[in-house]
Amino acid sequence: MRAPIGSFDDARPAPDCLDELVAPVAEAVRQWQGSVPAEEFVYVDTDPEIADTAVFVEHHGPELLDLSANCVVVAGKRGGETSLAACVVLSGTRVDVNGAVRRQLGARKASFAPMDTATGETGMEYGGITPIGLPAAWPLLVDAAVVDVPYVLIGSGRRRGKLIVPGKVFAELPGAVVLDGLGVPAS
Prior knowledge:
By secondary structure, the protein is an alpha+beta fold.
């Protein structure tokens, strides 16, 4: 199989690679019932040493920067209560945590969740967190620009491997809220 974007030596339909995915991601792919068949989710095997976006794009080509997205876990605090959410933005932008995220969560303060919280609550590896397979009760804030990209490269739940999925899938994930301006230019 050839990946719809990029040039990867090993690209396969994600349902054929469930053993390469962490349990919550594999289960989400197995149970997927959205408008795009799960067979259109593509798993590409990649080197975990180059999983971080800047290094990955340097190795696999600068055109992937505009076709890649990052998923980060944020913590919103209000009145002594902390709630977790995930945010998905294109890799060339950063999450507007103190603006769009704070307002959307109704939080007095919002920040990136600590690494041990992000990995412990998702069951995913740091540097590979993906919106596919997150806890269903979490809000999933998705920048509108991500949904508009025909195919998006995103983490697979592990540092090894990535998923390529049609952008419109992100609007169909559990808890998804599509927002304009969630991703702001990186400084």
